[in-house]
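DUF202 domain-containing protein
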Amino acid sequence: MSELHKEVSELERKSATAARLFDIRRIIGGLFVVYGVIVTIAGLNPSDADLEKAEGVHINLWTGLAMLALGLFFLVWMKLRPAEAPASPEQDQDPGPGTG
């Protein structure tokens, strides 16, 4: 295996790792989970004034739980369908006759 081929393989591996690391689903899912936990905790013991404003609905609790569910959906989606690095231009082209 040539030195250039090893270098290209290493760069492709790093590119795939970077694509998974900066997957937007991880950021969105993580933020929704964090904020969902905060809002759910705030909704566990609402004051009478808060319940009166929301017409008796535990709005913080329900919103927090919905945010948790959405955040977990994004994180599970990311685990089930991981991001793939974009294909290199060399892989997209036909190598032509006499190669391979």
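thats it. Helices lie at 3-21, 24-44, 48-53, 59-80, 89-92. The chain has a mean pLDDT of 81. bye
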